[in-house]
Design a protein that fits this description.
By secondary structure, the chain is mainly alpha-helical. It has three helices and two strands; from the N terminus they run E-E-H-H-H. Strands 1-2 form a two-stranded antiparallel ribbon. Helix 1 crosses helix 2. The two termini are 83 Å apart.
Length: 173
């Protein structure tokens, strides 16, 4: 870009500004500075132009610092959002791979089930195991984690009371 030289008159003080920005932009900045100085001198007639210029410069520096801090905060938030999005994308890809793996496993298991049903049709009915029904009124034991037991036939009344005592305790828990 070509360097522009702009002549400004701010509150009676003439200055030449060299800038890469357009002349209209530099003039608009000059107008903002002049307006800010005139606002300060208009509120207090005893303030000199120099003092008003210093106060204006301090105000503009304060605004610039706060804007830079806000921009840094926004950059940090955007960075965090991008990291979260990346993490979520990785989790989604992992979940898709797991879904595909489970679909494959389901297909394999369905194939095995179909094979087993085909083999059972070939077996005579005598070979299929049928469980003996439990007698009505026989005490039923709840299976515990990792262990299964069958009700034994011929339990005595004393054994039934003993078993019922513990079943009631487990039901109360």
């Amino acid at each position: 870009m070509s360097r522009n030289r702009v002549r400004l008159n701010i509150c009676g003080c003439e200055c030449v500004i060299g800038s890469d920005d357009s002349e209209s932009y530099v003039r608009s900045l000059g107008e903002q500075v002049e307006k800010a100085i005139e606002d300060i001198t208009g509120k207090n007639e005893r303030v000199s132009i120099t003092m008003a210029a210093i106060i204006t410069a301090l105000r503009f520096c304060d605004e610039a610092q706060k804007a830079a801090g806000g921009a840094d905060n926004l950059r940090s938030q955007i960075k965090d959002y991008l990291e979260d999005a990346s993490h979520a994308r990785m989790e989604a890809e992992e979940a898709k791979r797991e879904v595909e793996r489970l679909k494959q496993e389901i297909q394999t298991l369905r194939g095995r089930l179909a094979e087993n049903k085909g083999h059972e049709k070939d077996k005579p009915h005598e070979e299929l195991r049928v469980q003996k029904p439990i007698a009505v009124g026989a005490p039923v034991q709840k299976p515990q984690a990792g262990s299964y037991s069958r009700v034994q036939e011929g339990t005595t009344a004393e054994q039934e009371d003993f078993i019922n005592f513990f079943e009631k305790k487990n039901d109360e828990l």
